[in-house]
Structures are given as structure tokens and as C-alpha cells.
From TrEMBL:
Signal peptide: none annotated. GO terms for molecular function: lysozyme activity. Belongs to the glycosyl hydrolase 25 family. The lineage of its organism: Bacteria, Pseudomonadati, Bacteroidota, Chitinophagia, Chitinophagales. Transmembrane segments: none annotated. SUPFAM superfamilies: (Trans)glycosidases. InterPro entries: GH, Glyco_hydro_25. It comes from the Bacteria. This is Lysozyme.
Amino acid sequence: MKIIDVSSNQGVIDWPAVAQDGVTDVIIRLSLGYADVDKAASKNSQEAAKAGIRVSYYHFAYPDRRTGTAEGDAKQEAQYFAGMAHGGAYPPPRWLAVDLEPWGNQKDTPLNRQEFLFWVKTFIQEVTALTGVVPFIYSYAPYLNAKLPADHGLGLVPLWVANYGKVATPPLPLGWDRYFMWQYSSDGAVEGISTAVDLNKLARE
């Protein structure tokens, strides 16, 4: 399997060429926070599926208290993401994921560790209830170690871990003893994509 993930940052993509290069799966950024869709998501998902590539989606999370509480914000973002992922306007997904990382330069969640954990659990529960698909968590070890309490209890949630070091196995955040998928490069080259692209592999490969 050859798995990539993309967003509008990759620009215009030649999906038949991507398929010819052996890509079997793509995880497409679908949404950001609440009421913000990736501007290339529709085109990318439709054309990737047409080229015979299995499509999945991820949500770039903005965990905060926009609705007044962390729980309300998590439900709002989850409902927005799930509504698009399973609303019929996009090809049905193989996988779903929530992306947990800083929002941008010097911008990050204002939630404390317990609030952040509650937000993540609520988001996962809501998406699962609405779609029947358990979303896996995308992040990297130092970030989750800094944001979650040590006894978070999320270790059974599938983990999509990012680590670009030249290692046989990526370091895992506290509470996980295995990963589901490893994003092992951020500067991959794939035919049909003019920019660098993330490369991923499943743990069982």
C-alpha cells in the first residue's frame, strides 16, 4: 500500500498520475474547526475516487470553548465534520481522523490538559455515533504528551503518529503501545503532485 495525505496546500493534483505512481489510499483534509471546509476537498475526493484511489478524510481540530464549553465545541466540530464526511456530497470514506497539532504560528488550543482530553473524547464519541466509524488520532508524541494528562485512557484509540526521524519504529506518546499508521515523511515525491507530500504506512506492513 502507498498512502498519502493532502490538503489544498498541494495545489492542483493530477489524480490519474498519482494512481499510476502506485498510490492506493489518500487521506484528504476535509474540514478545519467549525464551518471551514478545505477548498480543494471536493475536487480532490471526487477525482481521487474516480482514479481508483481509496478516499479517507481528516478534520483539522481547533479545540477551544467557542460555544462556551469544551464539550459544546467538540460536538459542534464533530457534527460539522461527520455531516460532510457521511452527508453524500463526498465519496464515502475508508477511514476518518482528527488532526491534533498547533493551529499555526504561535497559535494553539487554550484548553488545559483535562479540558483537552474531554474535548478529544467527546469529538471521537460524537463522530463515531454519527458515522459508525471510529476516527483515529493524528499527532506526534511531544505534542500529545504536553496536552494530555498521563492517565488519559485513549490508548485503544487508533493512532496515526507523525515522526520523520530515521528510526525503525516511531516513538509513541504516553498511553499508547502501538500505532495504527505512521506518517514517516513530509517531503515525499509523487507523480501528479508538484509539491512535497506526506507519506504514510500501516503498522502491519
